[in-house]
Amino acid sequence: MSIHWQDKTALITGANRGIGLGLVQALINKGIKRIYLTGRDFAAQQSLAIQLKNPATELIALQLDVTSAKDIQQAAATISQLDFLFNNAGIATGSGFIAENSGDIAVQEMATNYFGPVNLTRALLPALKKSSGGAIVNVSSIAGIANMPLLGPYSAAKAALHSFTQCLRAELAKIHLLVQGVYPGPIETRLTEGFDLPKATPAEVADVVLAAIENGEEDVFPDAMSLNWYETFKANPKQLEKEYASWLG
Ligand SMILES: NC(=O)c1ccc[n+]([C@@H]2O[C@H](COP(=O)([O-])OP(=O)(O)OC[C@H]3O[C@@H](n4cnc5c(N)ncnc54)[C@H](OP(=O)(O)O)[C@@H]3O)[C@@H](O)[C@H]2O)c1
C-alpha cells in the first residue's frame, strides 16, 4: 500500500527515547505532516520538539502518562483526527511472580503495558476512524509470544497486549484500519541495559515497522533475534518456553 505520509498524522507514546524516538525520526524522514510527541515527562517532549524542528513536520508535545485517565482524556479532547497511533510506551522490571515485591511489579506493568494501550486506543478511536489508510501499532514483545521468566510479569502484560491486538483487529476489520502487532527481541535501549545479548538499534526497528505498515503487515518481528525465536515458536511452542525457562539457571 502506498502511503502519502505528507498528509498523515501520528501519535507516539514514550516518544522521547528508545524505539519511540526511532519511530519519530523515521516518520520525520518520511516527511509526515504532524507528530504528537507524548510521554509522562512533558519537558522531555518539548525539548525533543525543539531539537527535531523541521519545515515538513509539525511536532506537538503532549503530556501523556498512559496510566493516567486524565491525561488520556485530555489527549482525546485535543486530537480530532489521527492516522497512526503507536502504542510504544512500556516498562520492564526484571522479576518473576514469586518474589516478595512481584505483586506490585505485576500491577504496574499491566497498568503501563496493557491497560495503557487499551484505554488510549479506546479514547482515540473516534479520531482514528476518520482516517483513510491509518494504523494502530501495538509494540508488544517476543516475550509476549512465550513467557520469559526473567521478565515474568512483563511477559504476561505483553501477552495480554498481543491478545488485545488480535481482538481489535477483528473488531475493526470493516473500517480499513490496519492493526499491527510488533514483537521485538533485544533492542539497544535503556530497557535492555545490562542484558548481554546481540541487539538491533531503534532506527532499524523503526524502519522495519514503517515498511511493514506500507506493506499492510499485521505481525512484525523486526530484528534477527525475534525472527529466530518466532521460527522456534512456530515449529514447537514448548521448545521456546523451555529455552526461555533455562535462562533462570
Ligand atoms: N528494548 C527492547 O529490547 C524491547 C524489546 C521488546 C519490546 N520492547 C518494547 O518497546 C517499547 C519501547 O521500549 P524501549 O526499549 O524504547 O525502552 P525505553 O528506552 O525505556 O523507553 C520507554 C519509553 O516509554 C516511556 N514510558 C514508560 N512508562 C510510561 C507511561 N506510564 N506513560 C507514558 N510513557 C511511558 C518512557 O518514558 P520516561 O522517559 O518517562 O521513562 C520512555 O519514553 C516498550 O513497550 C517495550 O516494552 C522493547
What share of the residues does DSSP label as strand, in percent?
Answer: 5-15%
Q: Describe the main β-sheet briefly.
A: 7 strands, parallel
Order of helices and strands: EHEHEHEHEHEHEHH
What share of the residues lie within helices?
Answer: 40-55%
CATH superfamily: NAD(P)-binding Rossmann-like Domain
> Termini, distance in Å?
46 Å
What's the total count of β strands? 7
What is the CATH topology descriptor?
Rossmann fold
The top-level CATH class is Alpha Beta
Quickly describe the structure:
By secondary structure, the chain is of the alpha/beta class.
What descriptors fit this protein?
249 residues; globular; 7-stranded parallel sheet; 46% helix; 7 strands; Rossmann fold; binds NADP nicotinamide-adenine-dinucleotide phosphate; alpha/beta
SSE blueprint:
Blueprint: E1 9-13, H1 18-30, E2 34-39, H2 42-51, E3 58-63, H3 69-78, E4 84-87, H4 102-128, E5 135-139, H5 152-171, E6 178-182, H6 202-214, E7 219-220, H7 224-235, H8 237-246
Parallel strand pairs: 1-2, 1-4, 2-3, 4-5, 5-6, 6-7
The structure holds NADP nicotinamide-adenine-dinucleotide phosphate (NAP).
Structure, described:
The chain has a single domain, classed as NAD(P)-binding Rossmann-like Domain (Rossmann fold, 3-Layer(aba) Sandwich), CATH 3.40.50. Helices cover 46% and strands 13% of the residues. The chain is built from eight helices and seven strands, in the order βαβαβαβαβαβαβαα. The protein has a seven-stranded parallel beta sheet, with helices on both faces. It is globular. The mean pLDDT is 97. NADP nicotinamide-adenine-dinucleotide phosphate (NAP) binds at residues 13-14, 16-20, 39-41, 65-67, 88-92, 112, 139, 141, 184, 186-187, 189-192.
